[in-house]
Amino acid sequence: MEPVILIRQEDATHELLAATDYCIGIEEKRIYTHRWITVHPDDLLLFYTDGLTEAEAPGGEFFGRERVLEILRAKQENGTSDILKEILNALKRFLGEKTLSDELSLLLIKF
What's the average pLDDT block by block, 10 residues per block, for the chain (111 residues)? Predict the structure, then answer.
């Protein structure tokens, strides 16, 4: 499971909120734990699948989390739709003619 990325608007720092269980989804008879975090106005929270970070360019390089972090920091003043479009456009440029080999899901929340 990929960690959720929290970008702090105040200073553009990030936290990786390690998942100990599914962040989204429910399974019957499963015991879930919870964690409290404090968020502030304009903080960003990105949920994503490994299809994003493990997308592979023709040369074998992975898209990686650092590219995602760079986009989130650079575009954090924008709305969520614009940020997601920028992530997807960057991914398309990175892949070139290659297609994704895994599913891709993104959920971005701006507080």
Answer: 91 86 64 83 95 94 97 96 98 94 94 96
Beta-sheet strands, E only, within the chain: 4-7, 14-17, 44-48, 106-110
Output the CA torsion sign for 66, 84, 3, 5: positive
Closest of 110, 28, 31 to residue 77, by C-alpha: 110
What is the signed CA dihedral for 68, 100, 108, 44, rounded to 10 degrees?
-10
**The two structure tokens encoding residue 56:** 């592979």
d(C-alpha 46, C-alpha 95), whole Å: 21
Please, are residues 98 and 58 in contact by the beta-carbon 8 Å criterion?
yes
User: Distance between alpha carbon 25 and the CA centroid of its chain, in Å?
Assistant: 17
